[in-house]
Amino acid sequence: MPKRIAVLITNNFEDQEYLEPVAALLAAHHSVCNIELNAGKVVYGLHGCSAVTIDRGIEQISIDDFDALLIPGGESAVSLSTDVRVLQFIHAFNQAKKAIFSLCDASLLLCEADVLKNRIITSIRAHASRVQHAGGTYYDVELVNDNNQLISSRLSNDLPIFIHECLNVLKS
Which residue out of 49, 104, 111, 166 is catalytically annotated? Predict the structure, then answer.
């Protein structure tokens, strides 16, 4: 059964960490909704490979609209971490025990949303202490699946295994 995936991005998202998972999700017949602060805005990838039009603003959505949340890495995640509405959305998603797919710098956004207490996660090594300070257990491995609710990877090089795991979680 096709699932509805929210993708949380703004300017300077990691191009490959957006493009490859979204292409795989669409190929598997899931729907994708790009979310930022303002609908209709065009946001650009960190390396200039992507321009993405935002489908819905954060004020126009509910966690009930989606089955899973994808957060690509890059500076986008850091920028979004200052908006309380974004943090509340992520926190509510976590409380509802819906799947969150986190890549690279997205771990910083999860730290700010206060959803890592007693969770296991991977991210780039530079964020290990922040993850631990937020109450999470950090593993320096290519993929961590915490009870099909938090699926995380470190780098763009880990995308094949990350995408495979995300698609498996969506089948359940």
Answer: 104
